[in-house]
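It is worth pausing here to work through a concrete case rather than discussing structure prediction in the abstract. The textbook approach is simple: state the sequence, then state the predicted structure, then interpret. We follow exactly that order.
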Amino acid sequence: MKGVWFRALWVVCALVLASCGVDAPIPFSAAEASPAEVTPAPPSPAAATTTPPTTEAPTSEAPTTDWVAEPAESAPVDPTSSTAVIPSTTVGSIPPGVDRGVLLVGDSILEGLANLGYNFGPGTAYDTEVARSALTIPSLLESADVPSTLVMHLGTNGWWPTAAETLERSIADLSDRRIVLVNLRVDRTYEALANEDLRRIAAENENVELVDWNAVARPEVLRSDGFHPTLQGYEILARLIADAIGLEPDAHLLPPAPEPIVPLVF
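Step two, the predicted structure:
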C-alpha cells in the first residue's frame, strides 16, 4: 500500500516538474525503491556447496624400470692363496689345480694310522672302520666329499670278483683324482687274488698308483695276528703312502712328541 502512495506522489512531482520544463528522473525498480519488499532468493544448492580441494590419490604401484640387474661375475679362485675359498665339490667335479688334501679310506689297518696321528698334509682326513668290507667302496665314495688325493686299503676282511668290479667302476668316476691303492698282507686264501686285481687296476689307470705293502710287511713288523702292523710297521706303511702321494722324504708325518715331564725335587 505504501508503494502505491509512493508512485502517486512521484507522478504528481513529475507533472509539476514537466510544467517547469524539467525532465522527470527515471523511476527506480521495485527492488531498489523498497528493499524491504524484496524477498531474497534462496541460494542455489550448487552455489551453497563448497567443493573441497582435490588431491591426487597415492598409488601403491612401485616405479617401473626398464633395466635388470646383472649378477656380479665370480672372481676365479686362486689355488695358491692361503685364504682361497674352495668351493664344495662332488665326486668327479673337483676344480683342476685345487688341492683339497688327502682322504684315507679303509678298515682297521688304516684306522691304526689315524689313531697314531699320522698326517699327510693339510686337509688329511680318515674314513675307517673295523671289519669294513671291500664291497662298501661305492657307497663310501658316493657319500664322501672326495678330495684330490684318495688312499684306499680294503680287502683285509675278504675279496671277491665283485669287489674288483665295484672298485673299477668307482675309479672310473674319479678319473680327475690321484688314487693310491694299498695292497694286502693277510694270511688268507684270497690274498693273491686281491693283490693281482689291485695290481691290474693300477696298471690300467694312469691316475692310480699301487703301494706294495705286501712286499715289505715282514713278520717282524706285524703283530701276532699276522696282518696288523706294529709301531715300526705303521711307520713303514706311512712312509710308503707319503712317497706315493709325492711328499718330501723328510716330511714329518707325526706330530712332535710332547716334552717329557721332569718331576720337581724339593
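Step three, interpretation. Residues 26-95 have pLDDT under 50 and may be disordered. Strands lie at 102-106, 125-128, 149-153, 178-182, 208-211.
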